Amino acid sequence: MGGSPTADPLSYPGDIPDQPFVLDHGEVSPLSRGRPSAPDMNERHLVVAVGSNAAPARLVEKLGPDAAVPVLLLRVVGMDVRYSAHVTRYGAVPTTAWPQAGAALTLPALLLDDVQLVALDATEPNYDRVPLADVGVRLASHEHQRRASISTYVTRRGWYRLESKEPALPPLRGTTAGRCGTVLGQRQVLATVLAVARSARP
Description:
The structure is a single chain. The protein is of the alpha+beta class and 202 residues long. It has helices spanning 56-63, 114-122, 186-199; strands at 21-24, 27-30, 45-48, 68-83, 95-112, 127-131, 138-139, 150-155, 168-169, 176-177, 182-183. It has a single domain (9-199), classed as Gamma-glutamyl cyclotransferase-like (Hypothetical upf0131 protein ytfp, Roll). The protein contains 3 helices and 11 strands; from the N terminus they run βββαββαββββββα. Strands 1, 2, 3, 4, 5, 6, 7, 8 and 10 form a 9-stranded mixed β-sheet that branches.
């Protein structure tokens, strides 16, 4: 299942499989519609994950050991992923979805039932879950347009601005295009945050 960033903040966003998968009672398997224990995906809410919510170990921490969650990989148009302007309680600089004209990313997307959606929202006090259409973002495929909802999490703290005034961007493993900013790993972005904090001391 891999590790969670709560145990190792520098590993943020955690261990995320490269391919679509199902998390089922703590076990991770390749996604298959024919898999008997996979939940019915057609009536679920789709949530594009831009950080640790796509890591199986973090999903278990948030939704419990019995959670059954399919995770897709989808092409998202009109959105980038940036670092948020805050630090988590466990010591990582988290990420946020942010509208970006011309950007296109391949990102994990959770399929959650009603109870799981409410539970996940409760773990995101620094974020609003926003429908993609409300921020000018769309999925490249029309396959999922009839789902109960299609959304992602946008920070309430704003995005982290580097000294160059550019946004700090996390590295992404999927195919990307049209990103604007400076890509920094977690160790690098934490170093810049600490430097700013030290310089602000009297």
